Amino acid sequence: MSKSVSLNLPQVKSLMHYFGYKYVSIEDGTWKFVHKVFPGNYCFIKQRFGGSFIASIEFRYQSGHHNVKMDAAKVKSWEGLCNAVRNHTRALIFRREVTNQFIQQAA
User: Fold this and answer.
1) Could you give the CA distance from residue 106 to residue 89 in angstroms, rounded to a whole number?
2) Is the pTM of this model over 0.90?
3) How far, in Å, are 19, 27, 73, 92 from residue 103 at the CA level?
4) DSSP one-letter code for 88
5) Which terminus of the chain, N or C, has less C-beta within 10 A?
6) Cα torsion through 100, 41, 81, 26, rounded to 10
């Protein structure tokens, strides 16, 4: 995908589904996704028009009244968007594995 081509929702939904996210809503031009396996983990993607970036992506963890921004990036290409989502998903899996090991050792 070239920089001049904007993202489309079906394409982004397909990518996010591959990494375990489901589409929730659109608000103020930002697409919101929630991770199906890791509750409370949200991804927000907003297209950027102009300049060399095509989108802003932000990952947040929401628990109760707390909303913690975990990762954020501006991406210049479709590949950059894919890499950002992949890397964040890997980090979620790693955190889960470390937490499970800690719980097993404590038991």
Assistant:
1) 26
2) no
3) 26, 38, 32, 16
4) H
5) C
6) 160
- Residue whose C-alpha is closest to residue 45's, from 27, 24, 31, 59: 31
Local structure of 101: helix, strand or coil: helix
- Rounded mean pLDDT of 93-97? 71
78 vs 53: CA distance, rounded Å: 10
Type and span of the H or E element at 75 = strand 66-75
Question: What number of CA atoms fall less than 13 Å from residue 23's CA on the CB side?
Answer: 12
Q: List the one residue out of 39, 29, 99, 97 whose CA is nearest residue 63.
A: 39
Q: Whose structure tokens read 């031009």?
A: 29
DSSP class per residue in 5-64: SPP-HHHHHHHHHHTTEEEEEEETTEEEEEESSSTTEEEEEEE--SSS--EEEEEEEEET
